[in-house]
Amino acid sequence: MNTVDLTANTNAPLRGASAFIPAGRFVLRPVRKSDSGLFAMYAGDRRVAEATRSIPHPLPPGAAEAFVTRAMATDADEDIWVMDGSASGLAEVLGVISLKRMDETKRDRGQSEIGFWVGPAFWNAGFASDAVRALVDANPQGNRTIFAEVFQDNPGSARVLTNAGFVYLGDAETFSVARNARVPTWTYIRKLD
Q1: Theoretical Cys-Cys bridge with 95: which of 101, 114, 118, 144, CB 3.0 to 4.6 Å?
Q2: What is residue 12's predicted lDDT score, i.e. its pLDDT?
């Protein structure tokens, strides 16, 4: 089992997904190539895929490796962290959380969208709540506003957001690849300035 040194980067400036962010029982850390097997296992679970917009089900061969490559790219518009509990005796990969920049090509408005998923074996343990709070508090992209969207049939994720200070903005809908359908959503906002 690999361990993460929680003290190694405590004085390093927080910059995107290269930052290690303490989150209580675990740390948010950059994605590593070795994560692809666990990503494939968790994201390959229908329950995880159907709670996201972009994860297909069944997960095609090579999809986890492609996700790792995208997550490790230095020029990406999305910063992705792994929820890693190995230093506390928990699993090395509990889930994933990300911040995707919005409107950067037009002008920098300091806006991102947060997204997250947790492996089913770790549901209802507060990991998503801890990760969202830690990422918002660290604010590694220097955002003024963070948006979020959850499917209306996933009230647990809505509670994660409201418990982290997000405010309901309105109803919408989006396409889910795993469901091959448009799904009603709730949209949330968190102002940081």
Answers
A1: 118
A2: 38
